[in-house]
Amino acid sequence: MPRKRTRSRPKALRVPGADYGIQVLGERRAPLRDFYHALLRRPWGHTIAAICGVFLAANALFAIAYVVSGGVAHAGARSFVDAFFFSVQTMGTIGYGAMYPESAAANVLVVAESITSLTLTALATGLVFAKFSRSTARIIFTREAVISLVDGVPTLMFRLSNQRGNRIVDAQIRCVMVRKEITAEGQTFYRMLDLHPTREHVLSLSRSWSVMHPILPDSPLYGKTPDAIAADETEIGVMVVGLDETTMQPIHASHQYFARHVLWGARHADIISEAPNGDLVLDLDKFHDSEPTTPSATFPYPRPGDR
Questions:
Q1: In this predicted structure, what is the pLDDT of residue 26?
Q2: Sign of the four-CA dihedral 264, 265, 271, 272
Q3: What is the rounded CA–CA span in Å between residue 195 and residue 160?
């Protein structure tokens, strides 16, 4: 008889910064297989809670087995509490000696619990070590991208900053624009187009990097307006990769700009100035600030106040 396939419930995924979510149908889930990988991605609090939960659950199961089989010296008859504490002492290899196995069944359970303890300890140790050694980036992007004239050319600009005091060596950036198109057959298609910045890599990223993409005739944004990119459901994806000089491990960070995150006829506020003693001052309090630019006849796009 053929095996009946069960239809999985749709899984809803929220898109950061977007007004919509993605429902995934037909996904084959393997929660136990992906449990270790999921804990690596979750915050430390969730990981510690999961380790404690597995430890307590395993001891509770062995405590039930000790209660059923008996054979633990100085443990109360049918006492789950005594059996649980004996299981904790066994799994933790504490062995106070007040309670000990005195029957064949109890000794068999001790052997099984010892093997389980070695396995859980190895998994927990590997998980904690992997999370500690996993290098993560602390890179922030401006909330909005801006479009204004630079040397007479409309230019898409945004900036990013390394929130750590170290450097990201050989940092490289990739920008991709995704927009909705209708094919000749009338089908909806989301096309991915590269946005080439004026500089795609820097030798080292320490604090701030302003990324610029000139909107020339070969740019996917050439001739577009705010209404046009909104109608095309335009999204701009940004990915930065580099090498952390402290850990010497590769790190990455990503960000998405949607149509409403693009300010036309604006520029980011200056965050670098010079102190009286000649030192450079980097004011990250103004990192996300923007200001309108002077109108120009060569810049036909509407300004933010005109919308």
A1: 65
A2: positive
A3: 17
Sequence-distant (≥ 6) Cβ neighbours of residue 122 within 8 angstroms? none
Least confident of 9-18, 107-116, 289-298: 9-18
Stretch 161-189: mean pLDDT: 88
DSSP the chain: -PPPPPPPPPEEEEPTT-S-EEEE-S----TTTTHHHHHHHS-HHHHHHHHHHHHHHHHHHHHHHHHHH--EETPPTT-HHHHHHHHHHHHTT---SSSEE-SHHHHHHHHHHHHHHHHHHHHHHHHHHHHHH-----EEE-SSEEEEEETTEEEEEEEEEE-SSS-EEEEEEEEEEEEEEE-TTS-EEEEEEEE--S--EEEEESSEEEEEEE--TTSTTTT--HHHHHHTT-EEEEEEEEEETTT--EEEEEEEEEGGGEEETEEEPP-EEE-TTS-EEE-GGGTT-EEEPPP-TT--SPPGGG-
